[in-house]
């Protein structure tokens, strides 16, 4: 790991003042579950590490009838266990509770989860100079790409966004509060992520001298769920994730949102067809799953994700509708 100077500010303004206008020289440190790995791999080599551990105002979950606000410094384990989140947003509670393992969930924070870097093995290899590190090409495009994008069309870098909280938060219409030198700004989470194409861009729209301070989710009585298809049940990322939300009236569902995780460089808002205005049954949920996978353009090794998308969407819809989890029997 490259030597660095460690800072421990106590306010957001102090933390922001320690950041730089260029990526790479200063990094925010939350739980460190991603940043320290990147430093040990020499992928991140900041000379300043700015701890958020002592910064006031980043903790706490505040819930009322209209919204739930979660501070950027709240640990994933706390999100998974919180009563109001479990009641209103079971999809978020289950996504947070499925991340990594107990150590990761007890150190990892909401802000870090949303801003974590991608898991592409070429990007994470210190010796590979890929597009995101200033190189000329994305090695995954024609190389080993089985954990990469299935919606790869138009992308020069075919990573998948690694956050499993992001798709659920998008399905729930959450907004993220960003603070920077120009003050405070609320951004729809659906517009927060970007597909990076070079070393001057990251997986979010944040500028190098901005930070996430909180996420707010409106309470609208939406049914919601997240379903992940995983190779391993812990210490791994999903292969494919589907997050869904919808309104229910007289047994019919409407305003259906389907957001896919781990299939594209950003969380992928999918077409919700075959289900609106109907009841959630195995047939309608399966039809919605097929529609969600339409338009995918897999890489040489990600064709298998299409079937996983169909299954994940179908199961997420059935869970959100309170149907029996027959696949667990
Ligand atoms: C074995 C393993 C399995 C995992 N499985 C999953 C999984 O299934 N799903 C999933 O979603 N994640 C998974 N993760 C990733 C884990 O969720 C993240 O590492 C964690 O959430 C990052 O949070 P942190 O607080 O430790 O961030 P840090 O490591 O401290 O920071 C991560 C990045 O975010 C930036 N950052 C941190 N806070 C802020 C902020 N407030 N504003 C702006 N930038 C900020 C940092 O500068 C850094 O670049 C896994 C990790 C491991 C090691």
Largest sheet: 5 strands, antiparallel
Report the structural category.
alpha+beta
* CATH top-level class of the domain at 61-114 and 162-218: Alpha Beta
Let me know the number of strands. 12
The side-by-side strand order for the widest beta sheet comes to 4-5-8-6-7
Please state roughly what percent of the residues sit in beta strands, choosing from under 5%, 5-15%, 15-25%, 25-35%, 35-45% or over 45%: 15-25%
Distance between the termini: 47 Å
Integer-rounded radius of gyration: 19 Å
Low-confidence stretches: none
In DSSP terms (H or I, runs of 4 or more residues), the helix count works out at 12
* CATH architectural designation of the domain at 61-114 and 162-218: 2-Layer Sandwich
Mean pLDDT: 97
Q: What ligand molecules are bound, each kind once? A: flavin-adenine dinucleotide
**CATH topology of the domain at 61-114 and 162-218, anyone?**
Uridine Diphospho-n-acetylenolpyruvylglucosamine Reductase, domain 3
- Name the helicity range: 25-40%
**What series of H and E elements makes up the topology?**
EHEHEEEHHHHHHHHEEEEEEEHH
């Amino acid at each position: 790991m490259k030597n660095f100077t460690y800072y421990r500010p106590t306010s957001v303004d102090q933390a922001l003042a320690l950041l730089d206008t260029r990526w790479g020289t200063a990094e925010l440190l939350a739980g460190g579950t991603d940043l320290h790995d990147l430093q040990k791999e020499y992928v991140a080599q900041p000379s300043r590490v700015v701890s958020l551990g002592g910064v006031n105002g980043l903790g706490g979950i505040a819930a009322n009838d209209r919204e739930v606000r979660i501070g950027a410094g709240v640990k994933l384990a706390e999100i998974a266990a919180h009563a109001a989140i479990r009641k209103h947003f079971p999809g978020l509670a289950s996504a947070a509770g499925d991340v990594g393992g107990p150590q990761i969930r007890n150190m990892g924070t909401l802000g870090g989860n949303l801003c974590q870097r991608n898991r592409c093995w070429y990007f994470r290899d210190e010796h590979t100079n890929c597009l995101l590190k200033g190189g000329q090409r994305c090695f995954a495009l024609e190389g080993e790409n089985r954990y990469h994008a299935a919606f790869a069309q138009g992308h020069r870098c075919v990573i998948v966004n690694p956050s499993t909280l992001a798709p659920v938060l998008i399905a729930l219409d959450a907004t993220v509060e960003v603070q920077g030198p120009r003050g405070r700004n609320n951004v729809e989470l659906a517009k927060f992520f970007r597909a990076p194409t070079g070393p001057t861009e990251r997986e979010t729209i944040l500028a190098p001298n901005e930070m996430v301070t909180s996420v707010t989710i409106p309470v609208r009585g939406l049914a919601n769920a997240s379903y992940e298809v995983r190779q391993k049940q812990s210490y791994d990322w999903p292969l494919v994730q589907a997050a869904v939300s919808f309104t229910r009236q007289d047994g019919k569902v409407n305003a259906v949102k389907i957001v896919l995780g781990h299939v594209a460089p950003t969380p992928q808002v999918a077409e919700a067809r075959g289900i609106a205005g109907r009841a959630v049954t195995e047939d309608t949920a399966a039809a919605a799953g097929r529609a969600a996978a339409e338009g995918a353009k897999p890489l040489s090794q990600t064709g298998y994700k299409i079937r996983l998308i169909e299954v994940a969407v179908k199961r997420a819809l059935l869970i959100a509708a309170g149907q029996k989890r027959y696949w667990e029997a």
